Each structure stands twice: as C-alpha cells, then as structure tokens.
Amino acid sequence: MSDSLDHYLEQRLSTVRDAGLWRRTRILDGPQRPEQVIDGHRVIAFCSNDYLGLAGDPAVAAAARKALDQYGVGAGAAHLINGHTRAHEELEQALAHFTGRARALVFSTGYMANLALVQALVGRHDTVFEDRLNHASLIDAVRLSGARSQRYRHAEPAHLRERLEKAPATGQRLIVTDGVFSMDGDIAPLPELAALAREYNAWLMVDDAHGLSVLGDTGGGSCQYFGLGSDDVPILMGTLGKGFGTAGAFVAGSERLIETLIQTARPYIYTTAMPAALAAATLASVHIAASAHDRREHLQNLLRRLGDGLDRLGLPHPPPLTPIQPVTLGTATRASAVAERLFEAGFLVPAIRPPTVPEGEARLRITLSAAHTQTQVDALLQALERALDQT
Ligand SMILES: *Cc1c(COP(=O)(O)O)cnc(C)c1O
Q1: What pLDDT, in 10s, does the model give residues 326-367?
Q2: 58-290 carries CATH number 3.40.640.10
Q3: For atom 5 of ligand 1, which residue has the closest CA?
Q4: Catalytic residue numbers, as ranges
Q5: CA neighbours within 13 Å on the CB side: how many for 323?
Q6: What contacts 24+ positions apart, CB below 8 Å, involve 188-193?
Q7: Which of 211, 157, 161 is nearest to 186 (CA)?
Q8: Coil, helix or strand at residue 45
Q9: What is the 134 CA–ligand 1 centroid distance (Å)?
Q10: Span 275-321, pLDDT tens digits
Q11: Strand 351-352 relative to strand 173-178, pairing
Q12: Contacts for 165 with CB less than 8 Å, ≥ 6 apart
C-alpha cells in the first residue's frame, strides 16, 4: 500500500521537477521588512505584500501584545459559539467604517472569505463571470459553488458584455474580479464593470486584496480610486495580510449580505475564530492605514522612480500606480535565472512561473513597500541591469 503511494507521489513530483517548476520555501529570520536575512543571506526584499510597512510596525505589535495579555492566544471556538471577542467586534466595525459599508465580517484567511462569499451567493443554477486573471482563491470558490463559470478576457468589459449577452436568462449573475490584479499589478476597469452589472442585472463582487490601504485618499482601495461606492460595488472583499500587515480577511457590504454569510457560509460557521490579539493588532493597523498619507505618498514616489528606471532599461511594466510591478521575461528558465542572479547580488525578487501565470509569461514580481528607500530602489535597478546583461 505505502509502496504504491510512494511510487505515485514520486511520479507526480518528477513531473514538477522535469518541468522546471520546482518550488521551495526559504527560511526568514526576523520580521517582515525590506532588509532581512533569508536562508542565511542578507538581502533587500522586493516581494512582500506588506505595502505600507505595517507588518513589523511597533504600534501594531504593541496592540497585539496588549490583547494577548487580555485575551490569551487561542480564540477557542468559532465565532458563533464563543470565539467572537470584543476585539473582533471592534475590528468589524472599524472595517465597515474604513470601507464605507454598512457592515463587515472577519475571516481567518482571504481564501476562506472568497469560498464563503461565492458559495453564499450562487449555486448550480447561477452563472459567475470571472476575469481570466482572477486570483486562484476566486477560481476555486466558483468551482466549489457549482455555478456555471464564464471567463472573460482580462480587463476587457467588451468581452464581458458578450458573455452577459449570451448568458442564460434564468438564475443569478455574479461578476467577480480582483480590484488590483495580484500578478499583473493593473487595476480592474471597475466603472465599466459596475455599469455592465447594472445593465445586465448582475451583482458585482470585488476582491481588493491589493488595493485596500494602498489606493485612494484614505486607503479605500480601487473603489475609492474610481470614486465608486456600495451602490456600484455591493460586494467587497479585502485581505488583512497584505497592506494592513497582519493576517486574515473580511467581507464588507450591506446588513443583509453580512447576515447571509453569518447564517449560511460554511467557511464562516465551521472554523475557529482568528486569535483576538490578531484582531486587536489589525484594528491598530486599520487606524494607521486610514491616515497613512505620508506612507502612501512615499510609496507613489518610489513607484514613479522604479517606473522611470524600468523604462530606461526598456522593460515593460504596468502603469506605476500599484505596488505590484511585474517585469515579464518569457520562459520560466530565464525568469528563474535572473531571479537567482539578483539573489546572489543581495536582492530577493521572486520569479513567478506557470501555472501561477500563463505559459511564456514568467516574470519577476517586483513589489514595493512604503518601508523601502529611494536608495534601495536605485540599487535594485542597477542589479537588475547587471543580471539581465549576464543572462
Ligand atoms: C492573497 C490573496 C487572497 C488570499 O488571501 P489570504 O488571506 O492570503 O488567504 C485572495 N485574493 C487575492 C486577490 C489575493 O491576492
């Protein structure tokens, strides 16, 4: 029995290895910040999603420490039993306020929030319209919901319209998109999607994992960037492990939307609440994020500097509006080789390869944080130029 399992697993693993797609974890010592020690190497990291530099922020850590003393470590039970502390409640209120929605509900991870949300909204007789480059958790959520999936070409409202035209007249229609695309760094055309949702009587859901806290005057994300409110985007999901620098996720929307999740969403009901200390730390980070104008401005300055530098090197990149600035290099082998050179030079920039991105579009996924300095960005550009020359 165990022989046949080993044999089977070995075959699966060789397929990955032979395709040059082997992945491995590196070990980080110390907090998440640009200067770090990973696998024993001192590097400057350009890969975290800690866009505002809050993951290692002393005020956020202090809030966690204080709540640890008050609540202990484990939540002990699901929200609907007795795991929902005052810290969770305050965080949900703060997130509703932050996003300008009536109510918010916290989840332990973004993956779960997406599973919960899509399953609560649609089932077998419904149709979901998905951007082709949506995050894996959204794609899985739609699969699990059993709804019919219709993928439209990336950020192309015209193609979405065609799909909507041809959709069955019966059942609900849900349009689902990333706000900022996690591997491409561009912003979804939300005003056009909201207009189409209205025209075709569909609901619009935005996963703004990479937009919230970063885009908009008060960090309200891609909705705020476009000046859209809850009438345009009634279903908003955000994660807490990226710009907010902690962990977990939330859904924000109407009273009825949130109550429906509480009453029906299995990934909400059948899981232990996040630790209260994490909720308290996140509450602190949400307050910082709301007024983090300096951090956002510094980040935008760094992005312009990086964009100009990439232009000088003749490297295509998305408009430098979001902290995700991928540089597409083609084959997985080439992207890995450049990433390896950069690592040797003291820069951690991951190569993103298929199946995370389409075949032939392997890339370096450079991300910037408000915790980076201009000097670090300049040094990265120099190292990148050298690495490309040598590859
Ligand atoms: C990271 C991410 C998620 C998953 O969130 P986790 O809290 O890390 O599970 C969902 N959607 C998008 C777009 C993401 O980038």
Answers
A1: 999 998 889 999 999 999 999 999 999 888 888 899 999 999
A2: yes
A3: 110
A4: 182, 210, 242
A5: 30
A6: 188/131, 188/155, 188/222, 189/155, 189/157, 190/222, 190/223, 190/226, 190/228, 190/232, 190/233, 191/226, 191/228, 191/232, 192/157, 193/157, 193/160
A7: 211
A8: strand
A9: 11
A10: 999 999 999 999 999 999 999 999 999 999 999 999 999 999 999 99
A11: unpaired
A12: none
Answer whether the bond into residue 157 is a cis peptide, omega within 30°: no
Task: Tell me the one-letter amino acid at 360.
Answer: G
pLDDT of residue 1 exceeding 80, the answer is: no
The fourth-level CATH superfamily of domain 22-52+293-389 is Aspartate Aminotransferase, domain 1 (3.90.1150.10)
Quote the pLDDT of residue 2.
Answer: 74
Residue where the block lists tokens 């990433």: 339
Per the annotation, where are the binding residues for pyridoxal 5'-phosphate? 110-111, 182, 210, 239
User: Which residue ranges make up each domain of the chain?
Assistant: 22-52+293-389, 58-290
Q: What is the pLDDT of residue 21?
A: 78
Helix (H, G, I), strand (E, B) or coil at 109: coil
Rounded to two decimals, the pTM is 0.96
Question: What CA–CA distance (Å, rounded) separates 280 from 268?
Answer: 19
CB of 109 sitting under 6 A from ligand 1: yes
CA distances from 33 to 28, 207, 262, 367 (A): 11, 25, 36, 12
Going from the Cα of 1 to the center of ligand 1, the distance in angstroms, rounded, reads 37
| 25: helix, strand or coil | coil
The two tokens of residue 161 are 């319209």
pLDDT at 332: 87
Write down the residue that tokens 């912003």 correspond to.
Answer: 187
